[in-house]
Design brief:
The structure is a homodimer. The first copy, chain A, has about 190 residues and is mainly α. The first copy, chain A, is about 70% helix and about 0% strand. Residues about 1-5 of chain A have low confidence and may be disordered. Chains A and B meet through helix 6, helix 7, helix 8 and helix 9 of A and helix 6, helix 7, helix 8 and helix 9 of B. Chain A binds a DNA duplex (30 and 30 nucleotides) through helix 2 and helix 3.
DNA sequence: TACTTAACGGTACGGAACGTCCCGTACCGA
DNA sequence: TCGGTACGGGACGTTCCGTACCGTTAAGTA
């Protein structure tokens, strides 16, 4: 049968998430309505609400469905080069469509939806941060970094300015900027104060 | 007359912003409706819309009305101590009520309202960043920092991780964390890679 | 003081989207 | 064959939006 009147289960789930991504790119994630998503997916509102309790939860799963090929760190032995490679591709992912706008919309939602904030941290931010720290730890264990090197703070200094630009100043997030941060982190901004 | 049935002009403006702050703290800025604000202020919706085109714009002016005593940098001659003082009080301001939740709500709105994002940068983020850079520049001119010291990048490294915690990980933003960042910025995280 | 004018509170309105509910249908396994 | 269940469709009451129109009232002007 070439015709499939309406399927069930995972089929519907995938169709709804696809409709979310399509509509999100067309009209923007902020203007997205559950009704429009349901209509686009050829589903009823019940079917949407059966799966996701809120628009934010739907956005979140749609984001993960796009990003499933998680960003894994390379390990060439050169910590700076590996961080560079990894952060460059993370920036590319978080900047371009469809993930970029969706990601920003999710962070926006997370500001007044604690369970979304928690999910975002547990299943997206946290794992990425853990991978960065793990790669840094390996470099430290191999003697490329001082034993006193503060791994989690280094991660925060690498991530913070990027999110600052993405969410606040909204200036373009370039590879060159990533390189400036890496350079500052490993070779310093200048000598200590007198 | 002790009784003031209803005043005009600046009186109404102030009353509406006050109602916004009160209601925001009571029910949360996300659930705030223009109708509820108008009712609380004893104003009609027309009067609110005459002044602000959107809820986000109202939030923005309400934020500035609280924060008007702008954060100015001390200048004791010690750059690290002055940064510490300034950032500590900025963190206190942005963490506690009523500014903290309101500020987060505004950044949330800015993600899908470009004019709010622009206003936020021009009248809040930008001026604060400028003051930080100016204070750093003075220290550099006085020889406390290397002539090659990257002022704007230092500002980003100071701000970024704080906003990262405020908006993403939502861990408590402590003075001790600020101190860790300052320490890393000026004395380094550890030696360069081999 | 008397008149004019602009801002005001109140209210009604159409529209959009919310989240819930019910109905009749189509698939599925026992 | 027969229940169980997920489904599409659609109606529902609600909230809030932003606008329009009232009669009233305070402030400015002569």
């Amino acid at each position: 049968m070439t015709d499939t009147p309406h399927r069930r289960g995972a089929d519907r789930t995938a169709a709804i998430m696809r409709a979310t991504l399509e509509l999100g790119q067309e009209i923007g994630y902020a203007k997205l309505s559950m009704e429009a998503v349901a209509a686009r997916a050829g589903a009823s509102k019940q079917t949407v609400y059966r799966r996701w309790p809120s628009k934010a939860a739907l956005l979140f799963d749609s984001l993960l469905s796009v990003n499933e090929p998680a960003l894994d760190y390379p390990d060439t032995g050169d910590i700076v080069a590996d961080l560079r490679t990894q952060i460059h591709s993370a920036v590319d992912l978080l900047t371009g469509p469809p993930v970029g706008p969706l990601f920003r919309a999710l962070i926006s939602e997370a500001q007044h939806a604690p369970q979304i904030a928690a999910a975002l941290n547990e299943r997206f931010i946290g794992p990425q941060a853990d991978k960065t720290v793990a790669r840094l730890r390996k470099a430290r264990d191999e003697g490329q970094l001082s034993p006193a090197f503060d791994l989690t703070l280094a991660m925060a200094i690498l991530s913070g300015p990027l999110y600052f630009q993405l969410l606040i100043t909204q200036e373009p997030l370039t590879h060159a900027y990533v390189d400036r941060i890496l350079d500052a982190l490993f070779t310093g901004l200048g000598p200590s104060p007198a």
